[in-house]
Fold each of these.
Amino acid sequence: MQSASEERADNVAARLEAGMVFVNGASEDPLAPFGGYKMSGNGREWGEIAFGEFLETKAVIHGKAA
């Protein structure tokens, strides 16, 4: 996703049904939780969040604003 506004990007990311959202060309973060969403995201890998495997968690990762 691309946006000049981090606040707007966070609002859109919160509404997306996705396990991981990359904003403005952000690189992958090996410490961010990784997994799908809904039934495909039952469980997470990487990071401390992996312990809460039944939570619906989303990683929002920012790069530089356009």
Amino acid sequence: MPSRRQLKVARVIKEVVSEIIRDQLNDPRIDGLISITEVDVSPDMRTCDIFLSILSSSDAAARDTFRAVVHATKYIQSELGKQMTMRYFPHLNFKEDVKVKKTLETLRLIDKATSEYKDKDPQHNQQDELENSDGDIEQ
């Protein structure tokens, strides 16, 4: 379990890095929505893993966006260092968080399976038609 100090430093890093990415990075490769899902600060405060979730128009654009953020690591770290006063400033490691993508893919597969089940089950289709026709009011 992280210490209270680790949690506080992680929260500040998350807020400041989010601002820097949103307001100061002008790389044309950045496309889509970037959110920081998690920040893990090591107990010795020397390293920090920042997990990014990138929602973009395509997987290729998301990869380019991630590369652009990683390319800007030194800039982000220097800007962050200006806003935080610590004896040892953590080295930033950006990692791609795929939890959101996996969750969206799982939901898509559930929707697909549900629609296939409804298409194959004639009794279920008749019940849906009856439920829909009961609510109709003719004028």
Amino acid sequence: MFAITSWVQVMLGQHILPRNYHPAVDLMPERELNELVAGVADVIASCVEAMPMHAQFLARYGQAARQQP
């Protein structure tokens, strides 16, 4: 039903933490792994920067919801 990455999020959301990391990590050179993680961090930062602040979101969409019959 879920991809592996989705299951990780579900489990973490339930406070079920892994005891170890996936052994495939050892197959990737550390430099490449660091670049991958940095790339993910950059994507997340870009997405967060593009999003409105919480209060702005609520003002925009909360007001629209109140106006609907």
Amino acid sequence: MRLVNPLLKLFVKGHVWLYQSTDGRRGSTMQGRKILLLTTVGNKSGQPRTVPVVPFFEGNETYVIASMGGAPEHPAWYKNLLANPDVGVQVGAEKWRARAVAVEGPERDRLYKNISEQMPNFGEYQKKTSRVIPVVKLARQS
């Protein structure tokens, strides 16, 4: 198990607070990219956990990538949504409930290729790790 750097944890907590407290007016972009807040339920704690992630949009669909910078294991938020796929999503001021579904096979490969072409760092993350980095569709719930 990999321990998360306490400074990174503090930065993420501050980023989430800024994003939520300004209704997405601050913290909703980073380095020119949109940032999405993803709220999962902790698979051990049962408590809500919110993290900022870079989304990928294709048509009306929203995807997130469980890269963790190419680390050898999946991020905690991905493990959480595997245990409970009902998640909260916030993009800017817009908030909705979604069902998180891991995309697999040729569709995952196609999406990951498109994502890597738009954001080359994701291609580098896949090269760094032996695991297949998951692509997760956030299917909007009514």
